[in-house]
């Protein structure tokens, strides 16, 4: 890896691949259609991407199905799949700077985050599932001496994956890893807002030894390519990460077609509960700030609701605002930048619209609340903290997906839990307390797939990621992810 690279010089020279990757080669969309790829830091077009539609999805699914039925990957030894996926993971690290630059140009996150968090995280996911391939055992049921009942896992077949724009490669890797490790074929539809790394890594997978047709990437819009993938009669499972509204559509498409298996990781409005007995309120406030401002707040698990016990409100809120002032949005290609650009103009307007809504509902802007760096042409919103929020306000109930924090005060733990659970989502939650009994009881009472105690957004590939209620169905990460991409078969042998 280079030392202290000039990212602007590299950005000026880069010419990213923009075509779909189907059956082992890059191809234009059959219609010839393209769409603009816009740098959110400048508002300028820096490429044109193949606009795949139903015809391109059909071509990719056919390639994936043919590869699966031939068994060129599905029927290979686990040790072989382990070797290829391990080489693929190492290729991601070998191209870390290239992939990090594509990620930052595509969706506006700071280059330091792309380089140190996103690309290594994606490689770690692929490597972990490579190592898991030959460590999952099948079962023999305890049926008695007159029979032998084998319970085996088999790949589900062709998997369609639709991934979001906020962590383009990491979210893709969470699906690529277990899908391929289990022996499936894959058609990946990246977000039209950030397709570049997915397009690039398809070639790296081929070079690592993955057979043509096993891993296909079709860029395009959700209402065309994404819908076609979910409706395909030859896709056996569909895995989606994105908004709850779109997740509901994916479920409908699966039902309308072949009743394919559906897994969804959708929205969140995660509560971060700070009790006054926690001995280091400054630490809790610092974590609360990063829980909402990291990645420009564009995280489904962001701690977007800060629930603070009334006696600790001033101390916590003051520290959050102090940190927010140090995270003023900057040039994403500057390694010192902590907060980058919002992914596009549409999302920026959505975030600013919610800020206006919060004001009109009676909440107070304690800090921030404005678009900044307009002279750059990019889409930047400063960290924003609302105070005086009530549980019925839209800014307290709806996912904003930006650096906007809603602060709500409470007087008892029971009240905090009631507020925390009083939304449609249940992805993540946190509680800060020195009392171990309170910690356990609160964690158990919170209706969320992940509960952090005295921390926020702690993460490892070994633990499942997903939520309750309208935050989704199924889990990414950990060995539990294999449940989405495998079928259980019982083979009964009569020994009587």
Oligomer: single chain
Number of helical elements: 16
Tell me the radius of gyration.
Answer: 23 Å
Largest sheet: number of strands, sense, barrel closure: 7 strands, mixed
Distance between the termini: 64 Å
Number of strands: 24
**Gross morphology:** globular
Residue share in β-strands: 15-25%
Structural class: alpha/beta
* Sequence stretches where pLDDT stays below 50 over 5 or more residues: none
Provide the residue-averaged pLDDT: 97
Assign a percent range to the helix content: 25-40%
The strand line-up of the biggest sheet is 14-17-18-13-12-20-21
Key words describing this protein structure:
six-stranded mixed beta sheet, 40% helix, 24 strands, single chain, 21% strand, 496 residues, globular, alpha/beta, 16 helices
Structural description of this entry:
The chain is of the alpha/beta class. It contains 16 helices and 24 strands. It has a 7-stranded mixed beta sheet with strand order 14-17-18-13-12-20-21, with helices on both faces. A 6-stranded mixed beta sheet has the order 9-8-7-10-11-23, with helices on both faces. It has a 3-stranded antiparallel beta sheet with strand order 5-6-24. α7 links the parallel β8 (185-189) and β9 (215-217). α2 runs parallel beside α8, α4 crosses α5 (111-132) and α5 packs parallel to α6. It is globular and about 70 Å long. The model has no long low-confidence stretch (mean pLDDT 97).
């Amino acid at each position: 890896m280079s030392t202290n690279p000039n990212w602007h010089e590299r950005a000026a020279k880069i010419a990213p691949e923009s075509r779909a990757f189907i059956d082992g080669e890059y191809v234009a969309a059959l219609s010839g259609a393209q769409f603009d790829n816009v740098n959110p830091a400048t508002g300028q077009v820096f490429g044109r991407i193949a606009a795949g539609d139903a015809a391109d999805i059909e071509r990719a699914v056919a390639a994936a199905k043919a590869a699966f039925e031939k068994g060129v990957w599905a029927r290979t030894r686990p040790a072989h799949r382990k070797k290829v996926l391990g080489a693929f993971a190492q290729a991601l690290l070998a191209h870390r700077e290239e992939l990090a630059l594509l990620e930052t140009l595509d969706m506006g996150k700071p280059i330091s985050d792309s380089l140190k968090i996103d690309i290594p995280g994606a490689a770690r996911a692929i490597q972990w599932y490579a190592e898991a391939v030959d460590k999952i055992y099948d079962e023999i049921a305890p049926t008695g001496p007159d029979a032998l009942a084998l319970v085996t896992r088999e790949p589900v077949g062709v998997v369609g994956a639709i991934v979001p724009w906020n962590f383009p490669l990491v979210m893709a890797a969470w699906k690529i890893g277990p899908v391929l490790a289990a022996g499936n074929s894959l058609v990946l539809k990246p977000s039209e807002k950030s397709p570049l790394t997915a397009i690039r890594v398809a070639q790296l997978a081929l070079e690592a030894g993955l057979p043509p047709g096993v891993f296909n990437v079709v860029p395009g819009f959700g209402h065309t390519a994404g819908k076609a993938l979910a409706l395909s009669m030859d896709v056996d499972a569909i895995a989606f990460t994105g908004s709850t509204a779109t997740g509901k559509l994916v479920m409908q498409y699966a039902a309308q077609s072949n009743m394919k298996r559906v897994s969804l990781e959708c929205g969140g409005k995660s509560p971060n509960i700070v009790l006054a007995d926690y001995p280091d309120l400054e630490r809790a406030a610092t974590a609360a700030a990063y829980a909402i401002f990291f990645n420009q707040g564009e995280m489904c698990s962001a701690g977007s609701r800060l629930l603070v016990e009334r006696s600790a409100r001033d101390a916590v809120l003051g520290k959050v605002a102090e940190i927010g002032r140090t995270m003023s949005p900057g040039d994403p290609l500057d390694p010192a930048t902590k907060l980058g650009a919002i992914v596009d103009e549409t999302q920026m307007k959505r975030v600013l619209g919610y800020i206006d809504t919060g004001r009109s509902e009676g909440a107070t802007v304690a800090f921030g609340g404005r678009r900044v760096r307009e002279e750059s042409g990019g889409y930047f919103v400063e960290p924003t903290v609302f105070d005086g929020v009530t549980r019925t306000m839209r800014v307290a109930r709806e996912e904003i997906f930006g650096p906007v924090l809603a602060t709500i005060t409470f007087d008892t733990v029971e009240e905090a839990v009631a507020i925390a659970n009083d939304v449609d989502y249940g992805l993540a939650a946190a509680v800060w307390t020195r009392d171990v009994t309170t910690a356990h009881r609160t964690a158990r009472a919170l209706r969320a797939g992940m509960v952090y105690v005295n921390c926020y957004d702690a993460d490892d590939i070994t633990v499942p990621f997903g939520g309750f209620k309208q935050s989704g169905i199924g889990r990414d990460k950990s060995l539990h992810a294999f449940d989405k991409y495998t079928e259980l078969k019982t083979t009964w042998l009569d020994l009587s």
